[in-house]
């Protein structure tokens, strides 16, 4: 059985991160790119948001015996196979994981225009996944 306190804590942090990201999304591309604090914060809070989702997925997959997993993308497949996400959301989730990997491992070559576009176009995808985990409370 999934421990609700684990999910509640991560969902609470995720909500705080998304509020910060929403505020950062209001800047024009030019305003965003000219300020290292803005794009640095966006990169970090996007990373933390995706990490929180991955942590919740691993917790639920383990506690609900959804199946074995080794990588974050394996979790997406488990949630898809069990009907917790549809194919469209699964594809978005996989792209999020790939984006998180870029933020962590390719940080020297991040295209900040892409970070800005993610802020403008993909925060609702993070919220949709948060709702998936909220159903386990």
From TrEMBL:
Highest taxon, organism lineage: Bacteria
Keywords: Hydrolase, Nuclease, Toxin-antitoxin system
Matching Pfam families: HepT-like (PF01934)
UniProt record similarity statement: Belongs to the HepT RNase toxin family.
Name this polypeptide is given: DUF86 domain-containing protein
Source organism per UniProt: Thermus composti
Lineage: Bacteria, Thermotogati, Deinococcota, Deinococci, Thermales
